[in-house]
Protein backbone atom coordinates (compact mmCIF):
# COMPACT_ATOMS: atom_id res chain seq x y z
CA UNK A 1 0.00 0.00 0.00
CA UNK A 2 1.25 3.50 -0.74
CA UNK A 3 2.06 5.85 2.13
CA UNK A 4 -0.37 8.75 2.47
CA UNK A 5 0.48 11.83 0.44
CA UNK A 6 1.63 14.88 2.31
CA UNK A 7 1.82 18.50 1.35
CA UNK A 8 4.74 19.32 3.57
CA UNK A 9 8.15 17.74 3.25
CA UNK A 10 8.67 15.78 6.49
CA UNK A 11 12.44 15.90 6.04
CA UNK A 12 12.66 19.48 4.82
CA UNK A 13 15.71 20.33 6.92
CA UNK A 14 17.52 17.45 5.25
CA UNK A 15 16.89 18.85 1.82
CA UNK A 16 19.62 20.33 -0.31
CA UNK A 17 20.40 24.00 -0.31
CA UNK A 18 18.45 26.45 -2.40
CA UNK A 19 21.45 28.56 -3.19
CA UNK A 20 23.15 27.98 -6.50
CA UNK A 21 19.98 26.33 -7.71
CA UNK A 22 19.23 26.26 -11.40
CA UNK A 23 15.88 27.92 -10.78
CA UNK A 24 17.85 31.03 -9.84
CA UNK A 25 18.69 31.35 -13.50
CA UNK A 26 15.04 31.86 -14.20
CA UNK A 27 14.62 34.24 -11.30
CA UNK A 28 14.64 37.68 -12.83
CA UNK A 29 14.43 39.60 -9.56
CA UNK A 30 18.09 40.58 -9.68
CA UNK A 31 18.46 41.02 -13.40
CA UNK A 32 19.04 44.59 -14.46
CA UNK A 33 16.29 46.09 -16.54
CA UNK A 34 13.74 43.37 -15.74
CA UNK A 35 12.75 44.56 -12.27
CA UNK A 36 9.57 46.20 -13.50
CA UNK A 37 8.23 43.13 -15.24
CA UNK A 38 7.40 40.42 -12.76
CA UNK A 39 7.11 37.06 -14.50
CA UNK A 40 3.86 35.26 -13.83
CA UNK A 41 3.96 32.29 -11.52
CA UNK A 42 3.33 29.78 -14.27
CA UNK A 43 5.44 31.54 -16.89
CA UNK A 44 7.48 29.58 -19.38
CA UNK A 45 11.01 30.58 -20.44
CA UNK A 46 11.25 31.63 -24.04
CA UNK A 47 14.09 32.20 -26.48
CA UNK A 48 14.41 35.79 -27.76
CA UNK A 49 13.21 36.65 -31.28
CA UNK A 50 16.47 38.32 -32.25
CA UNK A 51 18.96 36.59 -29.97
CA UNK A 52 19.63 33.23 -28.32
CA UNK A 53 18.94 34.77 -24.88
CA UNK A 54 16.36 32.95 -22.77
CA UNK A 55 13.75 35.16 -21.11
CA UNK A 56 11.55 34.17 -18.17
CA UNK A 57 8.34 34.63 -20.13
CA UNK A 58 6.85 35.93 -23.35
CA UNK A 59 5.96 39.38 -22.01
CA UNK A 60 9.49 40.05 -20.80
CA UNK A 61 10.90 38.82 -24.10
CA UNK A 62 8.55 41.01 -26.17
CA UNK A 63 9.32 44.06 -24.05
CA UNK A 64 13.08 43.53 -24.53
CA UNK A 65 12.52 42.96 -28.25
CA UNK A 66 10.67 46.29 -28.50
CA UNK A 67 13.26 48.19 -26.50
CA UNK A 68 16.45 46.61 -27.71
CA UNK A 69 15.61 45.63 -31.28
CA UNK A 70 12.92 48.16 -32.02
CA UNK A 71 10.54 45.44 -33.14
CA UNK A 72 6.97 45.25 -31.85
CA UNK A 73 5.44 41.86 -32.56
CA UNK A 74 2.02 42.84 -31.19
CA UNK A 75 1.98 45.96 -33.35
CA UNK A 76 2.71 43.95 -36.51
CA UNK A 77 0.09 41.41 -35.49
CA UNK A 78 -2.51 44.18 -35.13
CA UNK A 79 -1.43 46.02 -38.24
CA UNK A 80 -2.14 42.99 -40.41
CA UNK A 81 -5.04 41.82 -38.23
CA UNK A 82 -3.36 38.43 -37.91
CA UNK A 83 -5.32 35.51 -36.57
CA UNK A 84 -3.72 32.67 -34.57
CA UNK A 85 -2.17 30.86 -37.53
CA UNK A 86 -1.13 34.14 -39.11
CA UNK A 87 0.75 35.06 -35.92
CA UNK A 88 2.45 31.65 -35.91
CA UNK A 89 3.61 32.22 -39.48
CA UNK A 90 4.91 35.66 -38.52
CA UNK A 91 6.89 34.25 -35.56
CA UNK A 92 8.40 31.40 -37.58
CA UNK A 93 9.18 33.76 -40.46
CA UNK A 94 11.08 36.11 -38.16
CA UNK A 95 12.91 33.26 -36.47
CA UNK A 96 13.94 31.73 -39.80
CA UNK A 97 15.16 35.09 -41.11
CA UNK A 98 17.15 35.72 -37.90
CA UNK A 99 18.64 32.22 -38.18
CA UNK A 100 19.82 33.17 -41.67
CA UNK A 101 21.52 36.20 -40.14
CA UNK A 102 18.91 38.81 -41.16
CA UNK A 103 18.18 40.87 -38.05
CA UNK A 104 15.81 43.25 -39.89
CA UNK A 105 13.21 40.96 -41.46
CA UNK A 106 10.92 42.62 -43.95
CA UNK A 107 7.43 42.92 -42.46
CA UNK A 108 6.18 45.61 -44.80
CA UNK A 109 3.55 43.29 -46.20
CA UNK A 110 1.66 40.26 -44.94
CA UNK A 111 2.42 38.36 -48.13
CA UNK A 112 6.10 38.11 -47.12
CA UNK A 113 5.31 35.57 -44.43
CA UNK A 114 1.89 34.32 -45.52
CA UNK A 115 3.17 30.91 -46.51
CA UNK A 116 2.18 27.58 -44.97
CA UNK A 117 5.84 26.57 -44.72
CA UNK A 118 6.04 29.04 -41.81
CA UNK A 119 3.60 26.90 -39.82
CA UNK A 120 6.53 24.59 -39.08
CA UNK A 121 8.26 25.71 -35.91
CA UNK A 122 11.81 26.89 -36.40
CA UNK A 123 12.69 26.13 -32.79
CA UNK A 124 11.87 22.86 -31.12
CA UNK A 125 9.27 23.49 -28.42
CA UNK A 126 9.12 27.21 -29.04
CA UNK A 127 7.43 28.59 -25.93
CA UNK A 128 6.40 31.70 -27.87
CA UNK A 129 4.15 29.59 -30.09
CA UNK A 130 2.58 28.01 -27.07
CA UNK A 131 1.93 31.32 -25.37
CA UNK A 132 0.36 33.38 -28.09
CA UNK A 133 -2.60 33.87 -25.80
CA UNK A 134 -0.39 36.31 -23.89
CA UNK A 135 -0.27 38.49 -26.97
CA UNK A 136 -4.03 38.44 -27.16
CA UNK A 137 -4.16 39.51 -23.50
CA UNK A 138 -1.84 42.43 -24.26
CA UNK A 139 -4.00 43.78 -27.02
CA UNK A 140 -7.06 43.18 -24.88
CA UNK A 141 -5.74 45.55 -22.23
CA UNK A 142 -5.81 48.41 -24.70
CA UNK A 143 -9.25 47.52 -26.00
CA UNK A 144 -10.64 47.77 -22.48
CA UNK A 145 -10.49 51.55 -22.61
CA UNK A 146 -13.13 51.67 -25.29
CA UNK A 147 -15.51 48.87 -24.40
CA UNK A 148 -17.37 47.99 -21.26
CA UNK A 149 -15.61 45.46 -19.10
CA UNK A 150 -18.40 42.87 -19.20
CA UNK A 151 -18.67 42.91 -22.93
CA UNK A 152 -14.94 42.73 -23.31
CA UNK A 153 -14.66 39.80 -20.88
CA UNK A 154 -17.29 37.87 -22.84
CA UNK A 155 -15.45 38.63 -26.06
CA UNK A 156 -12.17 37.57 -24.58
CA UNK A 157 -13.62 34.33 -23.29
CA UNK A 158 -14.89 33.57 -26.74
CA UNK A 159 -11.55 34.48 -28.26
CA UNK A 160 -9.75 32.29 -25.73
CA UNK A 161 -11.96 29.32 -26.54
CA UNK A 162 -11.26 29.80 -30.23
CA UNK A 163 -7.54 30.12 -29.59
CA UNK A 164 -7.55 26.98 -27.46
CA UNK A 165 -9.16 25.02 -30.27
CA UNK A 166 -6.77 26.43 -32.85
CA UNK A 167 -3.87 25.81 -30.54
CA UNK A 168 -4.78 22.14 -29.99
CA UNK A 169 -5.13 21.63 -33.74
CA UNK A 170 -1.89 23.41 -34.42
CA UNK A 171 -0.06 21.32 -31.88
CA UNK A 172 -1.28 18.09 -33.39
CA UNK A 173 -0.46 19.34 -36.88
CA UNK A 174 3.04 20.27 -35.75
CA UNK A 175 3.55 16.86 -34.17
CA UNK A 176 2.48 15.14 -37.34
CA UNK A 177 4.58 17.32 -39.57
CA UNK A 178 7.55 16.92 -37.25
CA UNK A 179 7.36 13.14 -37.38
CA UNK A 180 6.91 13.30 -41.15
CA UNK A 181 9.91 15.56 -41.31
CA UNK A 182 11.92 13.16 -39.21
CA UNK A 183 10.93 10.23 -41.35
CA UNK A 184 11.72 12.16 -44.48
CA UNK A 185 15.11 13.07 -43.04
CA UNK A 186 15.79 9.47 -42.08
CA UNK A 187 14.88 8.24 -45.55
CA UNK A 188 16.71 10.93 -47.40
CA UNK A 189 20.00 10.67 -45.52
CA UNK A 190 22.31 8.91 -47.94
CA UNK A 191 23.91 5.80 -46.48
CA UNK A 192 27.46 6.56 -45.49
CA UNK A 193 30.07 4.66 -47.47
CA UNK A 194 30.56 1.28 -45.83
CA UNK A 195 34.30 1.72 -45.79
CA UNK A 196 34.14 4.72 -43.43
CA UNK A 197 32.27 2.89 -40.71
CA UNK A 198 33.37 -0.23 -38.90
CA UNK A 199 31.01 -3.18 -38.81
CA UNK A 200 30.80 -2.83 -35.04
CA UNK A 201 29.81 0.84 -35.29
CA UNK A 202 27.07 0.03 -37.79
CA UNK A 203 25.84 -2.81 -35.60
CA UNK A 204 25.68 -0.55 -32.57
CA UNK A 205 23.96 2.23 -34.49
CA UNK A 206 21.34 -0.22 -35.78
CA UNK A 207 20.89 -1.64 -32.29
CA UNK A 208 20.47 1.89 -30.95
CA UNK A 209 17.78 2.64 -33.48
CA UNK A 210 16.05 -0.62 -32.54
CA UNK A 211 16.37 0.33 -28.88
CA UNK A 212 14.52 3.63 -29.28
CA UNK A 213 11.97 2.04 -31.60
CA UNK A 214 11.23 -0.55 -28.93
CA UNK A 215 10.18 2.32 -26.65
CA UNK A 216 7.70 3.69 -29.18
CA UNK A 217 5.02 1.07 -28.56
CA UNK A 218 2.22 1.26 -26.04
CA UNK A 219 2.98 -2.20 -24.65
CA UNK A 220 6.31 -1.42 -23.06
CA UNK A 221 4.97 1.74 -21.42
CA UNK A 222 1.87 -0.08 -20.25
CA UNK A 223 4.07 -2.71 -18.62
CA UNK A 224 6.13 -0.06 -16.85
CA UNK A 225 3.20 2.09 -15.75
CA UNK A 226 1.33 -0.96 -14.43
CA UNK A 227 4.35 -2.03 -12.41
CA UNK A 228 2.97 -0.37 -9.30
CA UNK A 229 6.04 -1.18 -7.19
CA UNK A 230 8.07 0.92 -9.61
CA UNK A 231 5.65 3.74 -10.47
CA UNK A 232 4.28 4.14 -6.93
CA UNK A 233 7.82 4.56 -5.61
CA UNK A 234 8.52 7.54 -7.92
CA UNK A 235 5.08 9.01 -7.22
CA UNK A 236 5.42 8.61 -3.47
CA UNK A 237 8.85 10.17 -3.34
CA UNK A 238 7.79 13.13 -5.48
CA UNK A 239 4.43 13.75 -3.80
CA UNK A 240 5.72 13.12 -0.27
CA UNK A 241 8.55 15.60 -0.86
CA UNK A 242 6.76 18.45 -2.58
CA UNK A 243 8.99 20.86 -0.69
CA UNK A 244 11.95 19.58 -2.72
CA UNK A 245 10.21 20.13 -6.06
CA UNK A 246 8.35 23.40 -5.52
CA UNK A 247 9.73 26.15 -7.75
CA UNK A 248 12.53 23.92 -9.06
CA UNK A 249 13.76 23.15 -12.56
CA UNK A 250 13.61 19.40 -13.18
CA UNK A 251 14.96 17.28 -16.02
CA UNK A 252 13.25 13.96 -16.79
CA UNK A 253 15.77 11.84 -18.69
CA UNK A 254 13.82 9.40 -20.88
CA UNK A 255 10.33 10.74 -20.13
CA UNK A 256 8.41 8.03 -22.05
CA UNK A 257 4.71 8.86 -21.65
CA UNK A 258 5.63 11.81 -19.42
CA UNK A 259 4.45 10.23 -16.18
CA UNK A 260 7.39 11.29 -14.00
CA UNK A 261 7.37 14.81 -15.48
CA UNK A 262 3.69 15.14 -14.62
CA UNK A 263 4.31 13.92 -11.06
CA UNK A 264 6.96 16.65 -10.75
CA UNK A 265 4.73 19.34 -12.28
CA UNK A 266 1.91 18.38 -9.95
CA UNK A 267 4.32 18.59 -7.03
CA UNK A 268 4.99 22.23 -7.91
CA UNK A 269 8.08 22.18 -10.14
CA UNK A 270 8.53 25.51 -11.91
CA UNK A 271 9.76 23.93 -15.10
CA UNK A 272 10.21 20.33 -16.22
CA UNK A 273 12.27 19.44 -19.27
CA UNK A 274 11.11 16.05 -20.52
CA UNK A 275 13.54 14.46 -22.96
CA UNK A 276 13.11 11.28 -24.98
CA UNK A 277 14.57 10.03 -28.22
CA UNK A 278 11.72 7.66 -28.99
CA UNK A 279 8.53 8.50 -30.91
CA UNK A 280 6.73 8.11 -27.59
CA UNK A 281 7.61 11.79 -27.00
CA UNK A 282 4.66 12.68 -29.23
CA UNK A 283 2.36 10.93 -26.78
CA UNK A 284 4.13 12.63 -23.89
CA UNK A 285 3.44 16.02 -25.54
CA UNK A 286 -0.22 15.20 -25.92
CA UNK A 287 -0.48 13.85 -22.36
CA UNK A 288 1.20 16.95 -20.99
CA UNK A 289 -1.11 19.22 -22.96
CA UNK A 290 -4.30 17.34 -22.10
CA UNK A 291 -3.44 17.42 -18.41
CA UNK A 292 -2.89 21.17 -18.45
CA UNK A 293 0.87 21.15 -17.89
CA UNK A 294 1.96 22.60 -21.24
CA UNK A 295 3.12 25.76 -19.50
CA UNK A 296 5.39 23.84 -17.09
CA UNK A 297 6.62 20.78 -18.99
CA UNK A 298 8.64 21.19 -22.17
CA UNK A 299 8.98 17.99 -24.18
CA UNK A 300 12.20 17.78 -26.13
CA UNK A 301 12.81 15.06 -28.67
CA UNK A 302 16.30 13.64 -29.03
CA UNK A 303 19.10 11.90 -27.21
CA UNK A 304 19.90 13.67 -23.98
CA UNK A 305 23.51 13.79 -25.14
CA UNK A 306 22.53 15.71 -28.30
CA UNK A 307 19.55 17.97 -27.59
CA UNK A 308 19.73 21.70 -26.90
CA UNK A 309 17.96 22.57 -23.69
CA UNK A 310 16.32 25.88 -22.76
CA UNK A 311 18.36 26.15 -19.55
CA UNK A 312 22.04 25.56 -18.78
CA UNK A 313 21.39 23.63 -15.57
CA UNK A 314 18.67 21.96 -13.54
CA UNK A 315 18.00 21.44 -9.84
CA UNK A 316 16.78 17.85 -10.03
CA UNK A 317 17.25 14.96 -12.44
CA UNK A 318 14.55 12.33 -12.33
CA UNK A 319 14.86 9.21 -14.44
CA UNK A 320 13.73 5.63 -14.58
CA UNK A 321 16.77 4.13 -16.28
CA UNK A 322 17.05 0.71 -14.63
CA UNK A 323 17.28 -2.30 -16.93
CA UNK A 324 17.42 -6.05 -16.46
CA UNK A 325 20.31 -6.97 -14.18
CA UNK A 326 20.20 -3.20 -13.49
CA UNK A 327 22.71 -2.21 -16.17
CA UNK A 328 21.34 -3.89 -19.30
CA UNK A 329 20.38 -1.10 -21.78
CA UNK A 330 23.25 1.10 -20.54
CA UNK A 331 20.78 3.90 -20.04
CA UNK A 332 22.52 4.86 -16.82
CA UNK A 333 25.45 6.07 -18.94
CA UNK A 334 23.13 8.69 -20.45
CA UNK A 335 21.74 9.71 -17.07
CA UNK A 336 25.25 10.17 -15.66
CA UNK A 337 26.14 12.20 -18.75
CA UNK A 338 23.11 14.41 -18.06
CA UNK A 339 24.15 14.72 -14.40
CA UNK A 340 27.68 15.79 -15.32
CA UNK A 341 26.50 18.34 -17.89
CA UNK A 342 23.33 19.78 -16.39
CA UNK A 343 22.88 19.14 -12.67
CA UNK A 344 23.45 22.29 -10.60
CA UNK A 345 25.94 22.01 -7.71
CA UNK A 346 24.07 20.43 -4.81
CA UNK A 347 21.30 19.22 -7.15
CA UNK A 348 19.37 16.03 -6.51
CA UNK A 349 19.32 12.72 -8.37
CA UNK A 350 15.99 10.84 -8.18
CA UNK A 351 16.48 7.99 -7.38
CA UNK A 352 19.66 8.60 -5.42
CA UNK A 353 21.04 5.08 -4.87
CA UNK A 354 20.74 1.58 -6.24
CA UNK A 355 22.48 -1.60 -5.08
CA UNK A 356 23.16 -4.82 -6.96
CA UNK A 357 22.77 -8.10 -5.08
CA UNK A 358 23.71 -11.71 -5.75
CA UNK A 359 22.61 -14.95 -4.06
CA UNK A 360 23.16 -18.68 -4.74
CA UNK A 361 20.22 -20.20 -6.59
CA UNK A 362 18.63 -23.66 -6.50
CA UNK A 363 15.55 -24.58 -8.55
CA UNK A 364 15.47 -28.07 -10.06
CA UNK A 365 11.99 -27.47 -11.52
CA UNK A 366 13.26 -24.48 -13.48
CA UNK A 367 16.33 -26.39 -14.68
CA UNK A 368 14.02 -29.23 -15.79
CA UNK A 369 11.69 -26.92 -17.70
CA UNK A 370 14.44 -24.83 -19.24
CA UNK A 371 17.14 -27.45 -19.96
CA UNK A 372 15.91 -31.05 -19.65
CA UNK A 373 12.78 -30.05 -21.61
CA UNK A 374 14.69 -30.11 -24.93
CA UNK A 375 15.60 -33.76 -24.57
CA UNK A 376 12.05 -34.74 -25.50
CA UNK A 377 9.63 -32.24 -27.02
CA UNK A 378 6.35 -33.89 -28.01
CA UNK A 379 8.39 -37.10 -28.20
CA UNK A 380 11.13 -35.60 -30.43
CA UNK A 381 14.80 -35.21 -29.52
CA UNK A 382 15.55 -31.49 -29.68
CA UNK A 383 18.83 -31.63 -27.83
CA UNK A 384 20.33 -29.46 -30.59
CA UNK A 385 18.69 -26.63 -28.67
CA UNK A 386 20.94 -27.36 -25.72
CA UNK A 387 23.98 -25.91 -27.51
CA UNK A 388 25.01 -22.75 -25.63
CA UNK A 389 21.97 -23.05 -23.38
CA UNK A 390 24.06 -22.09 -20.35
CA UNK A 391 25.52 -19.01 -22.04
CA UNK A 392 22.52 -16.75 -21.69
CA UNK A 393 21.42 -14.93 -18.58
CA UNK A 394 17.69 -15.57 -18.07
CA UNK A 395 15.23 -12.98 -16.84
CA UNK A 396 12.72 -14.84 -14.69
CA UNK A 397 10.97 -14.62 -11.34
CA UNK A 398 12.52 -16.72 -8.58
CA UNK A 399 10.73 -17.80 -5.41
CA UNK A 400 12.12 -17.14 -1.93
CA UNK A 401 12.94 -20.84 -1.48
CA UNK A 402 15.21 -20.72 -4.55
CA UNK A 403 17.58 -18.40 -2.73
CA UNK A 404 19.68 -20.52 -0.36
CA UNK A 405 21.84 -17.86 1.33
CA UNK A 406 21.48 -14.25 2.39
CA UNK A 407 22.29 -12.17 -0.65
CA UNK A 408 25.40 -10.01 -0.84
CA UNK A 409 25.66 -6.49 -2.27
CA UNK A 410 28.34 -6.57 -4.95
CA UNK A 411 27.95 -3.05 -6.33
CA UNK A 412 26.51 -0.05 -4.51
CA UNK A 413 25.70 2.76 -6.95
CA UNK A 414 25.63 6.21 -5.32
CA UNK A 415 24.06 8.07 -8.22
CA UNK A 416 25.38 11.50 -7.31
CA UNK A 417 28.97 10.38 -7.63
CA UNK A 418 29.36 7.08 -9.51
CA UNK A 419 31.07 7.28 -12.91
CA UNK A 420 30.44 5.41 -16.17
CA UNK A 421 33.88 3.77 -15.82
CA UNK A 422 32.76 2.20 -12.54
CA UNK A 423 29.93 0.42 -14.37
CA UNK A 424 32.53 -1.99 -15.80
CA UNK A 425 33.81 -3.83 -12.77
CA UNK A 426 35.08 -6.93 -11.02
CA UNK A 427 33.87 -7.29 -7.42
CA UNK A 428 34.29 -9.90 -4.74
CA UNK A 429 31.44 -11.29 -2.68
CA UNK A 430 30.88 -13.91 -0.01
CA UNK A 431 27.71 -15.80 1.00
CA UNK A 432 27.00 -18.53 3.56
CA UNK A 433 24.55 -21.36 2.78
CA UNK A 434 21.45 -21.36 4.98
CA UNK A 435 20.57 -24.99 4.26
CA UNK A 436 21.90 -28.28 2.84
CA UNK A 437 21.54 -28.46 -0.95
CA UNK A 438 22.01 -31.21 -3.55
CA UNK A 439 23.96 -28.81 -5.69
CA UNK A 440 24.15 -25.21 -6.80
CA UNK A 441 22.03 -24.49 -9.89
CA UNK A 442 23.52 -21.07 -10.39
CA UNK A 443 23.17 -17.45 -9.28
CA UNK A 444 20.35 -15.01 -8.87
CA UNK A 445 20.94 -11.27 -9.34
CA UNK A 446 18.62 -8.37 -8.54
CA UNK A 447 18.76 -4.71 -7.58
CA UNK A 448 17.23 -2.41 -4.98
CA UNK A 449 16.39 1.27 -5.49
CA UNK A 450 16.40 4.07 -2.91
CA UNK A 451 15.15 7.65 -3.03
CA UNK A 452 17.06 9.72 -0.47
CA UNK A 453 15.90 13.34 -0.13
CA UNK A 454 19.32 14.98 -0.30
CA UNK A 455 22.58 14.39 -2.17
CA UNK A 456 24.25 14.33 1.23
CA UNK A 457 21.78 11.97 2.96
CA UNK A 458 23.58 9.21 4.85
CA UNK A 459 23.18 5.87 3.13
CA UNK A 460 24.26 2.39 4.15
CA UNK A 461 25.32 0.29 1.16
CA UNK A 462 23.71 -2.79 2.74
CA UNK A 463 20.36 -1.01 3.23
CA UNK A 464 17.27 -3.20 2.85
CA UNK A 465 14.28 -1.49 1.18
CA UNK A 466 11.71 -2.81 3.68
CA UNK A 467 13.79 -1.47 6.60
CA UNK A 468 14.27 1.89 4.90
CA UNK A 469 10.53 2.14 4.31
CA UNK A 470 9.92 1.62 8.04
CA UNK A 471 12.18 4.64 8.62
CA UNK A 472 10.00 6.73 6.30
CA UNK A 473 12.14 6.61 3.16
CA UNK A 474 10.96 5.54 -0.27
CA UNK A 475 12.64 2.41 -1.65
CA UNK A 476 11.81 -0.77 -3.51
CA UNK A 477 13.37 -4.13 -4.22
CA UNK A 478 13.25 -6.23 -7.35
CA UNK A 479 14.33 -9.29 -5.34
CA UNK A 480 12.40 -12.54 -4.87
CA UNK A 481 11.14 -11.84 -1.35
CA UNK A 482 8.56 -9.19 -2.18
CA UNK A 483 5.98 -8.46 -4.89
CA UNK A 484 7.44 -9.23 -8.30
CA UNK A 485 8.31 -6.29 -10.55
CA UNK A 486 8.57 -6.27 -14.36
CA UNK A 487 12.35 -6.59 -13.93
CA UNK A 488 11.98 -9.96 -12.16
CA UNK A 489 15.50 -11.27 -11.49
CA UNK A 490 18.42 -12.33 -13.60
CA UNK A 491 19.24 -16.06 -13.31
CA UNK A 492 22.67 -17.37 -14.31
CA UNK A 493 22.44 -21.15 -14.63
CA UNK A 494 25.57 -23.13 -13.77
CA UNK A 495 26.65 -25.36 -16.66
CA UNK A 496 25.91 -28.91 -15.55
CA UNK A 497 26.45 -30.49 -18.95
CA UNK A 498 29.90 -31.79 -18.07
CA UNK A 499 30.23 -31.35 -14.32
CA UNK A 500 27.51 -32.66 -12.06
CA UNK A 501 26.57 -30.42 -9.10
CA UNK A 502 28.29 -31.13 -5.77
CA UNK A 503 26.09 -31.51 -2.62
CA UNK A 504 26.76 -28.76 -0.10
CA UNK A 505 26.06 -28.26 3.60
CA UNK A 506 24.43 -25.48 5.56
CA UNK A 507 27.10 -23.06 6.84
CA UNK A 508 29.47 -23.62 3.92
CA UNK A 509 30.93 -20.37 2.66
CA UNK A 510 31.03 -19.53 -1.04
CA UNK A 511 33.61 -16.94 -1.99
CA UNK A 512 33.22 -15.47 -5.41
CA UNK A 513 33.77 -12.58 -7.75
CA UNK A 514 31.48 -11.08 -10.34
CA UNK A 515 32.37 -8.97 -13.36
CA UNK A 516 30.09 -6.86 -15.57
CA UNK A 517 31.21 -5.42 -18.86
CA UNK A 518 29.53 -4.19 -22.03
CA UNK A 519 29.50 -6.75 -24.83
CA UNK A 520 31.48 -4.31 -26.90
CA UNK A 521 32.09 -0.60 -26.65
CA UNK A 522 28.84 1.31 -27.08
CA UNK A 523 26.74 -1.85 -26.77
CA UNK A 524 23.65 -2.02 -24.56
CA UNK A 525 24.17 -5.76 -23.95
CA UNK A 526 26.21 -7.13 -21.05
CA UNK A 527 28.69 -9.91 -20.41
CA UNK A 528 28.60 -11.19 -16.85
CA UNK A 529 31.23 -13.50 -15.40
CA UNK A 530 31.10 -15.24 -12.02
CA UNK A 531 33.96 -17.17 -10.38
CA UNK A 532 33.23 -19.14 -7.25
CA UNK A 533 35.05 -21.31 -4.79
CA UNK A 534 33.29 -23.44 -2.18
CA UNK A 535 35.66 -24.29 0.67
CA UNK A 536 37.99 -25.87 -1.87
CA UNK A 537 35.23 -28.42 -2.76
CA UNK A 538 34.29 -26.74 -6.00
CA UNK A 539 36.03 -24.00 -7.94
CA UNK A 540 34.43 -22.70 -11.11
CA UNK A 541 34.20 -19.84 -13.55
CA UNK A 542 31.43 -19.16 -16.05
CA UNK A 543 30.24 -16.33 -18.34
CA UNK A 544 26.77 -15.36 -19.47
CA UNK A 545 25.50 -12.73 -21.81
CA UNK A 546 22.47 -10.56 -21.15
CA UNK A 547 21.12 -9.35 -24.48
N1 LIG B 1 10.12 7.77 -17.62
C1 LIG B 1 9.18 6.86 -18.24
C2 LIG B 1 9.83 5.94 -19.28
C3 LIG B 1 11.02 5.13 -18.78
S1 LIG B 1 11.64 4.03 -20.01
C4 LIG B 1 8.50 6.05 -17.17
O1 LIG B 1 8.99 6.05 -16.05
O2 LIG B 1 7.48 5.43 -17.44
C5 LIG B 1 13.10 4.83 -20.56
C6 LIG B 1 12.88 5.89 -21.65
O3 LIG B 1 14.13 6.55 -21.83
C7 LIG B 1 12.51 5.35 -23.01
O4 LIG B 1 11.33 5.97 -23.48
C8 LIG B 1 13.71 5.65 -23.91
O5 LIG B 1 13.35 6.00 -25.24
C9 LIG B 1 14.33 6.84 -23.20
N2 LIG B 1 15.79 7.00 -23.37
C10 LIG B 1 16.76 6.09 -23.11
N3 LIG B 1 17.98 6.60 -23.35
C11 LIG B 1 17.78 7.89 -23.75
C12 LIG B 1 18.66 8.93 -24.16
N4 LIG B 1 19.99 8.77 -24.19
N5 LIG B 1 18.13 10.10 -24.53
C13 LIG B 1 16.78 10.28 -24.54
N6 LIG B 1 15.90 9.33 -24.16
C14 LIG B 1 16.38 8.15 -23.78
From TrEMBL:
<dbReference type="Pfam" id="PF22528">
    <property type="entry name" value="PRMT_C"/>
</dbReference>
<feature type="domain" description="Protein arginine N-methyltransferase 3-like C2H2 zinc finger">
    <location>
        <begin position="77"/>
        <end position="121"/>
    </location>
</feature>
<keyword id="KW-0863">Zinc-finger</keyword>
<dbReference type="GO" id="GO:0005634">
    <property type="term" value="C:nucleus"/>
</dbReference>
<dbReference type="Pfam" id="PF21137">
    <property type="entry name" value="ANM3_C2H2_Zf"/>
</dbReference>
<dbReference type="InterPro" id="IPR055135">
    <property type="entry name" value="PRMT_dom"/>
</dbReference>
<keyword id="KW-0808">Transferase</keyword>
<protein>
    <recommendedName>
        <fullName>type I protein arginine methyltransferase</fullName>
        <ecNumber>2.1.1.319</ecNumber>
    </recommendedName>
</protein>
<dbReference type="InterPro" id="IPR029063">
    <property type="entry name" value="SAM-dependent_MTases_sf"/>
</dbReference>
<keyword id="KW-0963">Cytoplasm</keyword>
<feature type="domain" description="Methyltransferase">
    <location>
        <begin position="250"/>
        <end position="347"/>
    </location>
</feature>
<dbReference type="Pfam" id="PF13649">
    <property type="entry name" value="Methyltransf_25"/>
</dbReference>
<keyword id="KW-0539">Nucleus</keyword>
<feature type="compositionally biased region" description="Acidic residues">
    <location>
        <begin position="32"/>
        <end position="43"/>
    </location>
</feature>
<keyword id="KW-0175">Coiled coil</keyword>
<dbReference type="InterPro" id="IPR049482">
    <property type="entry name" value="ANM3-like_C2H2_Zf"/>
</dbReference>
<dbReference type="GO" id="GO:0042054">
    <property type="term" value="F:histone methyltransferase activity"/>
</dbReference>
<keyword id="KW-0597">Phosphoprotein</keyword>
<dbReference type="GO" id="GO:0035242">
    <property type="term" value="F:protein-arginine omega-N asymmetric methyltransferase activity"/>
</dbReference>
<dbReference type="InterPro" id="IPR041698">
    <property type="entry name" value="Methyltransf_25"/>
</dbReference>
<keyword id="KW-0862">Zinc</keyword>
<dbReference type="GO" id="GO:0032259">
    <property type="term" value="P:methylation"/>
</dbReference>
<keyword id="KW-0949">S-adenosyl-L-methionine</keyword>
<feature type="coiled-coil region">
    <location>
        <begin position="146"/>
        <end position="173"/>
    </location>
</feature>
<dbReference type="GO" id="GO:0005829">
    <property type="term" value="C:cytosol"/>
</dbReference>
<keyword id="KW-0479">Metal-binding</keyword>
<dbReference type="InterPro" id="IPR036236">
    <property type="entry name" value="Znf_C2H2_sf"/>
</dbReference>
<dbReference type="GO" id="GO:0008270">
    <property type="term" value="F:zinc ion binding"/>
</dbReference>
<dbReference type="InterPro" id="IPR025799">
    <property type="entry name" value="Arg_MeTrfase"/>
</dbReference>
<feature type="region of interest" description="Disordered">
    <location>
        <begin position="1"/>
        <end position="44"/>
    </location>
</feature>
<keyword id="KW-0489">Methyltransferase</keyword>
<feature type="domain" description="Protein arginine N-methyltransferase">
    <location>
        <begin position="354"/>
        <end position="535"/>
    </location>
</feature>
Amino acid sequence: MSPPQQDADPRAEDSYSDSDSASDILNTANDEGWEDVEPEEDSQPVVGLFSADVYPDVRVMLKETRERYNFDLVKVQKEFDLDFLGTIKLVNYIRSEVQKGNKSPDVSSKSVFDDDSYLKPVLDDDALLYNLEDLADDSAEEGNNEKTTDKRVAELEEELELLRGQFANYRLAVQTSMSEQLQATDDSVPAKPVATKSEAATRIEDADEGYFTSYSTNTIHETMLKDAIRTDAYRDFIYDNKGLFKGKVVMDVGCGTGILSMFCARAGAKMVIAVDNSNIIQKARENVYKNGFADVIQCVRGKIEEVTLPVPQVDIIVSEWMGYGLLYEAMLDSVLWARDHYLAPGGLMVPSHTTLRIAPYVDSDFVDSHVTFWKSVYGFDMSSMLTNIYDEAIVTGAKPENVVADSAVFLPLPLHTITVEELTFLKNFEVTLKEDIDGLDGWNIWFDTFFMPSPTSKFNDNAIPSDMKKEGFVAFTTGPFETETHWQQCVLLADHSERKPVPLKKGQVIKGSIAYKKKEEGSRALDIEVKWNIDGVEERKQSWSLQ
